[in-house]
Amino acid sequence: MKLVIGLGNPGEQYKDTRHNVGFEIIEKIRSDWNFSQWEFNKKFDAEISKSDNVLLARPQTFMNLSGEAVQAILTFYKLTSEDIIVIHDDLDIAVGNYKISKNVSSAGHNGIDSIIENIGTQDFTRIRIGVEMEAGRQARQIPGEDFVLQKFTEEELEKIKKISDDILNEIKKLL
């Protein structure tokens, strides 16, 4: 079994924010690939959707504690870090771009830090979705931790939509 995790923050106030792009992509996977409806699992503190050999998860712990939910799921299903793909926002990448990484540091992403701390390794696959302004960090007038809680502009949302099918194809290859 493979586990695909979308990172974000629970709650309507975070919908369409940069930090929740992992939630948005994992919802696209769920709906496009005809997975079951989301069900909240109290033991994992996560919403879960299943198919025959793939489990989708949206931790409901808030971003900075995502590792607690991931660890609980890994333990219950007897999975290893090799079995997981984590989808998350990345301020080092411009909107409309993404990168696939494996066995790399968190680069300061608190959700990834939490996963690494809880599962004891950084050796897992990550799909890092760009959320930074095209003009770059230097053009931004607010700190990153505040910027990621802002909503995407309509133009930025279009860019995310354009790459989402490519991301889903990459995930199919990884599975």
General description of the model:
The chain has a single domain (2-174), classed as Peptidyl-tRNA hydrolase (Rossmann fold, 3-Layer(aba) Sandwich), CATH 3.40.50. Helix 1 (21-32) crosses helix 5 (154-174) and helix 2 runs parallel beside helix 3 (110-119). The protein is α/β, with parallel strands linked by helices and 175 residues long. The protein is built from five helices and seven strands; from the N terminus they run βαβββαββαβαα. The chain has helices at 21-32, 66-77, 110-119, 144-147, 154-174; strands spanning 2-6, 39-41, 46-50, 54-59, 84-94, 98-102, 125-132. It is globular and about 45 Å long. The mean pLDDT is 95. Strands 2-3-4-1-5-7-6 form a seven-stranded mixed sheet, sandwiched between helices. A hairpin with a 4-residue loop joins strand 2 and strand 3.
Radius of gyration in whole Å, from Cα? 15 Å
Structural class: alpha/beta
Roughly what percent helix? 25-40%
CATH first level: which class?
Alpha Beta
What summary fits the major beta sheet?
7 strands, mixed
CATH topology: Rossmann fold
- Tell me the β content: 15-25%
Taking pLDDT < 50 over at least 5 consecutive residues as the criterion, the unreliable ranges are none
Question: Architecture, CATH level 2?
Answer: 3-Layer(aba) Sandwich
